[in-house]
Specification:
Layout: E1 5-11, E2 17-23, H1 34-48, E3 53-60, E4 65-67, H2 72-81, H3 91-108, E5 114-118, E6 121-123, H4 125-131, E7 135-138, E8 143-145, H5 159-162, H6 170-177, H7 183-188, E9 194-195, H8 201-208, H9 224-238, H10 248-251, H11 253-259, H12 265-273, H13 281-292, H14 295-307, H15 313-330, H16 332-342
Parallel strand pairs: 2-3, 3-5, 4-6, 5-7, 6-8, 7-9
Antiparallel strand pairs: 1-2
Helix pairs in contact: 1-3, 2-16, 3-4, 3-15, 6-14, 8-9
């Protein structure tokens, strides 16, 4: 049986080393399982503490995806086995979301450069891994999205933090519609730093072995700024010279900002839903996705965007953890996975069935601490460790 994550180290000409972690489940588009999360976390810690390792590379096996999201089949089995019980009583989902969010936070605060190769499909949990990397690279094949509204969840893994930092109200639009971003829009939205043609990726890995990486200083850490700069230089040397045309998110940003500028979700939803007949198929598809998605997810995504607007990443991950546990018990999450991946009838029976039923009062339960008073939040220590 193949390992779910492959790890290797390459030695540069000056004797320093860099680690390569490869998500190794191409048949599931490298969907992120708990086993993969734990393996990555352990190896990242080992490389962080190894003075001979100067940087880390994250990539996905296969040609189609870096990572298309989380292990929905595993989460579905766990929700079925724990039906009728609160999410806080489901040991598997508690571990999955806690470990996944800790891994994402670890990448955000990693002491060494992290290069993420966001080729092909990058969605959901893949966005969580990629967005914290110091050097985020896309290719001509990249397609990025947070389409959780289609499965009864919400843009988690720090999505409520990330989307709030996109230009104007584009992040809210993406949260409500699950719309895809191409390579150009990945830069516009702040999700990418560099691009390479897919065929040039092996050349980049070869060039990393030729760089004069700075080794560990007396304190055991390599000079971060030097190695960040060397990595930037290596990426820039292979960056395509052809300019990127504006993507649909950027092209329609004025319209999106106008439609999403209010503070009442009902009004925004009505305006976006009317785009179903728009002449641009990207906008029409975004509207259709929102209309077919879970009304409860639309309400929850909007509430998180509103409430997390000025919060730290640590606070956002703690709030998302509570909301995610509630989603596993609510029902729409399991129903969304059933309709998409299990029965594949693509006819989810959402409850509540309308946005009016998914009211501002209804969404409050997704923000209530599910554990006894006095028990600390499982992610209470985020932000307390030194970088």
């Amino acid at each position: 049986m193949n390992a779910p994550v492959l790890f290797e180290e390459k030695t540069a000409a000056n004797g320093t080393r860099f680690g390569i972690a490869t998500l190794n489940s191409p048949q599931t588009l490298n969907g992120l399982s708990l086993e993969m999360v734990d393996a990555l976390a352990a190896q990242l810690d080992a490389w962080a503490n190894d003075p001979g390792v100067v940087l880390v590379v994250l990539q996905g096996a296969g040609e189609k995806a870096f990572c298309a999201g989380g292990d929905l089949h595993g989460l579905y089995r766990s929700m079925r086995e724990n039906a009728g019980r609160p999410g806080s009583d489901n040991a598997y989902v508690r571990r999955f979301f806690e470990h996944e969010y800790r891994l994402d936070y670890r990448i955000h605060t990693y002491p060494k450069p992290v290069l993420c190769w966001g080729h092909g499909i990058v969605m959901g949990g893949g966005i969580g891994l990629m967005m914290g990397a110091s050097h985020r690279v896309v290719s001509e094949t990249s397609r990025l999205a947070m389409p959780e509204v289609t499965i009864g969840l919400f843009p988690d893994v720090g999505g409520s933090w990330l989307l709030n930092r996109m230009p104007g109200r584009t992040g809210l639009f993406l949260a409500l519609t699950g719309a895809n971003m191409n390579t150009s829009d990945a830069f516009f939205a702040g999700l990418a730093d560099f691009r390479l043609n897919h065929a040039d990726w092996p050349r980049l890995l070869e060039s990393l072995q030729e760089q004069p990486w700075a080794g560990a200083a007396d304190d055991g850490l390599a000079p971060r700024s030097i190695n960040d700069g060397l990595l930037r230089r290596a990426l820039a040397a292979l960056e395509p010279q052809t300019p990127l045309e504006p993507g649909p998110l950027r092209q329609h940003s004025f319209l999106i900002n106008s439609l999403c500028s209010g503070n009442r979700l009902d009004d925004i939803h009505e305006e976006l839903a009317a785009l179903k007949d728009h002449e641009d198929p990207w906008l029409a598809r975004a509207a259709a996705t929102m209309r077919a998605g879970s009304p409860g997810s639309v309400r929850l995504s909007f509430a998180l965007q509103q409430r997390m607007r000025a919060r730290s990443l640590e606070d956002v991950l703690r709030a998302e953890y509570i909301a995610a546990l509630a989603c596993t018990a609510h029902g729409d999450f399991a129903e969304g996975i059933r309709a998409l991946l299990i029965d594949k009838d693509k006819k989810p029976r959402w409850n509540p069935a309308t946005l009016q039923e998914a009211s501002e009062a209804w969404v409050e339960k997704f923000f209530e601490d599910p554990w006894p008073e006095g028990e600390p939040h499982p992610l209470a220590d985020l932000g307390q460790q030194g970088r």
